[in-house]
Amino acid sequence: MQEDRNNQKPACPSERPCTKTLIKHRWKTAFKERNGGYKPDQDPIHRLSRAEQTAIFRLRTGHCGFKAHLKRIGVAESALCDCGAADQTVEHVLNTCTNFTLLRNQIWPEGATLETKLWGTSEDLKATFQFTTAAELRP
Ligand SMILES: [Zn+2]
Q1: From the CA of 40, how far away is ligand 1's center (Å)?
Q2: Centroid of ligand 1 to alpha carbon of 3 (angstroms)
Q3: I want to staple 87 with a disulfide (CB 3.0 to 4.6 A). Which of 21, 24, 79, 105 is the partner?
Q4: Its domain of life (predicted)?
């Protein structure tokens, strides 16, 4: 065993950095395969109707008809949500606003992350659109 090590010319000066580098590389590759960064041609938003695309795009960017944005651009007096618990942001409305708890549980009975609601499959995005439509929100 010792002789084999001495005869080989490893790429790294010791085993430890090689292993660390290999693990890091594998992790980065796996992450890239899973997420791949943003690939516009593979974004499921393109499989939606125009109205659905517009709503999801507005929700993703936060440039929508919710009070937090309207306050930011000087159109609304207050950013506070109608429930009174927090500013009416995309995250608040989609994830925690008590005004929509029942509807949220109907559309996402298993629960869903904000990431899934905004960046998931085309079915996930359609569910988000369905939520905003049923809630009579105009994103
Ligand atoms: Zn609220």
Answers
A1: 32
A2: 69
A3: 79
A4: Eukaryota
